[in-house]
Amino acid sequence: MFNSHIGEKEHNEARQGEALMLENPSDKNNGRKLFIESYGCAMNFSDSEIVASIMMDMGFETTADFKEADVIFINTCSIRENAEQRVRNRLKEFKGVKSKNPGLVVGVLGCMAERLKAKFLEEEKLVDVVVGPDAYRDLPNLIDLVDEGNKAVNVLLSREETYADINPVRLNTNGISAFISIMRGCDNMCSFCVVPFTRGRERSRDAHSIVQEASDLFNQGYREVTLLGQNVDSYKWEGGVNFAQLLEMVALVSPALRVRFSTSHPKDITDEVLHTMARHENICNYIHLPVQSGNSRVLELMNRTYDREWYINRIDAIRNIIPGCAISTDVITGFCTETEEEHLETLSMMDYVQYDFAYMFKYSERPGTLAAKRYADDIPEEVKSRRLTEIVDRQQQHSHIRMLEQIGKVQKVLIDGFSKKSKNDYAGRNDQNATVIFPVDERYKPGQYVNVLAERCTTATLIGKIVD
Ligand code: SAH
Ligand code: SF4
Ligand code: F3S
Fold first, then answer.
1. pLDDT score, position 299
2. Which residue minimizes the CA distance to atom 4 of ligand 2?
3. Residue nearest to atom 7 of ligand 3 (CA)
4. Pairing of strands 152-154, 129-131
5. Domains contained in the chain, number
6. Residue 79 CA, closest ligand 3 atom number
7. Per-position b or e across 212-239, b if 16+ CB within 10 A of its CB
8. What's the pLDDT score for residue 25?
């Protein structure tokens, strides 16, 4: 097994029988503090937990205050232009800390690091180390290089790396919900998307290590895991396990462990997955199924490899096999050449599905993608904005309709903690992933399930009371 705190050089020395003479590699970092923050998707967040684990093996401890940090890592996202802008703005805030503490190490990790590579060092003088998503095991060497006064970069992508053997350090945890990364990379080539370039080829993690992680989490008191991948339906582990089978293996860890997953791809989601969800009460009735556009021509330009009819067929299958399943989506508006009629087809798709929730974006051209090479980003900004407003307004109506449907029904809620607004209320989520708020009852604690009668709602939250 890989021992993440022994670098290549020490490793060789150790093999020559000099192990006893080695100073403990963690000693020199003892007491050094790591501040790490993540942007972008849940996968980045989950990666930061792997990075924290590697750094703690090196002797670091984590801190929530960047002003007292010896190392600041920022795990970055490249998905849209504004995601990168946020990272650059954030880096500016770290300048002051560096001027007070010249020994401070500033590192950029993740997708933007992978996209910009060594250019990052030229563009942002503050940055000392640039590390891509598949190179985190190299952190001990990279930090050594920086400590010796160098700048360091490792952005090699891998076809095998899944970090399967690294035990993530849970960051910002409530001790109840955790992410488990089940695969990395993406082999789809959606024309708008930078992920295949920043995350590399798709690879699936050893199924047994996933089940083991879920089981360890359950034994530590966690009650919900979310299995993560860019396209979970194409999970395929060499032992012959597909996603439906993996889902079942994780669901069998305990009926008291809720299992969620993200993201499903419309071209790949199978009836087998849906039947597996229907069979297991603890696999939550919630599917995130990004549509991107409701128009077949635009979907083709996007290289999504399904059309409107196919997507509707998948929605119908979900409705038939899992009645009451919540469905959310991602929408991109103003993609290259999108006409007004095509935009209306996205709205009519939204009317058909009546999504519980949606993430909605204006198209943002990303350098190096197929769309950037082939098509002009020709929809004017004000048209993109107006279309987005129409989409957001429509979604608000649908979210409200979906909330109203839950009123008068008893919800099985996993208590996450206290409501943000009041210590007199608990907050939790129902099976469909809606937030539910209800008065604290001393008999129940966070991490337990309770039955809550939903009595009213706001646009995004159900409000109710415990019923026994
Ligand atoms: N793997 C997931 C999506 C990951 S990225 C899937 O295939 O559905 C998350 C979302 O960001 C995408 O679903 C898409 O809606 C949005 N997105 C990706 N690239 C974008 C771009 N160039 N401009 C605007 N939104 C984009
Ligand atoms: Fe990007 Fe498409 Fe892969 Fe999703 S499936 S990560 S949108 S290339
Ligand atoms: Fe962003 Fe990379 Fe995730 S580009 S959305 S952090 S995979």
1. 98
2. 230
3. 195
4. parallel
5. 3
6. 4
7. ebbbebbeeebbbbbbbbbbbbbbbbee
8. 56
392 pLDDT tier (thresholds 50, 70, 90): very high
Tokens read off for 149 = 């006064």
Q: Is 190 in the pocket of ligand 2 (CB under 6 A)?
A: yes
Q: How far is the CA of 230 from the centre of ligand 1 (A)?
A: 10
Q: 281: left (phi > 0), else alpha (psi -120 to 50), else beta?
A: alpha
Average pLDDT over residues 99-104: 90
Last residue of a domain, one of 405, 424, 448: 405
Cβ(107)–Cβ(131) under 8 Å?
yes
Give the ligand whose atoms come closest to the C-alpha of residue 38: 3
Residues ≥6 apart with Cβ < 8 Å to 376: 336
- Residue 167 counted as domain residue: no
How far does residue 268's CA lie from ligand 2's centre (Å)?
Answer: 12
> Which residue CA neighbors atom 1 of ligand 2 most closely?
193
Contact 71, 107 (CB under 8 A): yes
Tell which atom from ligand 3 comes closest to the C-alpha of 112: 4
- Distance (Å) from CA 193 to ligand 2 centroid: 6
Rounded to 10 degrees, the C-alpha dihedral 261/266/267/269 comes to 40
Place of tokens 């087809």: 345
Say how far residue 137 (Cα) sits from the centre of its chain.
20
pLDDT per residue as tens digits for the range 211-260: 999 999 999 999 999 999 999 999 999 879 999 999 999 999 999 999 99
113 ligand 2 Cβ < 6 A: no
Look at residue 26 in the predicted model and tell me its pLDDT.
60
CATH code of the domain containing 143:
3.40.50.12160
**What span, in angstroms and rounded, lies between the C-alpha atoms of 407 and 26?**
55
CATH at residue 249: 3.80.30.20
Q: What is the pLDDT of residues 266-325, one digit of tens each?
A: 999 999 999 999 999 999 999 999 999 999 999 999 999 999 999 999 999 999 999 999
**Ligand 2, from 231, 292, 302, 303: best to mutate by most atoms within 8 Å of Cβ?**
231
* Ligand 3 midpoint to CA 196 (Å): 10
Same domain, 400 and 414: no
User: How far is it, in rounded angstroms, from Cα 78 to Cα 39?
Assistant: 9
Return the closest-CA partner of residue 146 out of 29, 292, 227.
29
Per-residue CA distances from 125 to 35, 91, 118, 142, 400 (Å): 19, 10, 11, 17, 47
